[in-house]
Amino acid sequence: MDSIIVKELSKRFGKILAVDKISFSIKKGEIFGLLGPNGAGKSTTLLILATLLKPTSGEALVNGFEVTTDPDKVRESIGIVFQDPSSDELLTGYENLKLHALLYNVELNKIDEKVNNVLRLVDLVKRKNDQVKKYSGGMRRRMELARGLIHEPQILFLDEPTLGLDPQTRAKIWKYIQTMAKKLKMTIILTTHYMEEAESLCDRVAIIDHGKIIALDTPNNLMGKLKGDTVLLRGKNIDVAKIRRLPFVQRIETQGKDIKLTVENSAENLALLLETAGKIECVEVHPPSLNEVFLNYTGREIREENEKGNNW
Known about the structure:
Layout: E1 2-13, E2 16-27, E3 31-35, H1 42-49, E4 57-62, E5 65-66, H2 71-77, E6 78-81, H3 93-103, H4 111-121, H5 137-149, E7 155-159, H6 167-184, E8 187-192, H7 195-201, E9 204-209, E10 212-217, H8 219-224, E11 229-234, H9 240-244, E12 249-255, E13 258-263, H10 266-277, E14 282-286, H11 290-298
Parallel strand pairs: 3-8, 3-9, 6-7, 7-8
Antiparallel strand pairs: 1-2, 1-4, 4-5, 9-10, 11-13, 11-14, 12-13
Helix pairs in contact: 3-4, 3-5, 4-5
């Protein structure tokens, strides 16, 4: 059964086409990622599915309800954690959660039980009576995850759930998300531009760029479609011209003192590559990653950020 069905969905802001006729479906209980750089159309898609933006054209069904004709039914089915903090800093964690429960018409005699349940899930029981302004960034993010779960939604939207967090806190958030998906059996759709986040969390990912979905599959299948490993070479006088003539070298990119290559069948061809390259100080070999997948489809690194652009 599909929790979300999207057909030919588009969203235009003036002359800018932020989402361009995308189509996909998400199974019940699946963790699904929208992967791409800032400005790709990820957040816009999420906001349309959450009924916070109206599409220019196309159709989107969330839990069986169309987002434009049955928005109230959609909202009853979903929880959402926004990219930017949206909790009240002057209220305590407990008060934020209780307020959200009241807004979602959670039964009064069950609010305390549900608040305590989600606080335990995100490990904030001991800090529930502290004002949110005293929380660290990671604690606040966990509290907002708890808030999105308080009414036990069937579908949870996470917009860049770990943006700006340190790697240790980010890993903890991933663990909470996986725990929630398994324990509560909910469908989760998240946007991210972190490669490792998509690889670690998602059952499937849709790579989106310039408003279009350019690839959609499991992370392993997407990486498996690439022929070749990534080889990093470091040295002072690497002969790039000779390397370029090797038939098993598919792509060459210079990164300062490093040369990044995509090499077909590196196990067999690495010795000849090193012999051809000249004096090498360091060599690293990595299997294909989602970053290489994105580079293969778009010709640019997924981590590139358009700092002056809009975060669509």
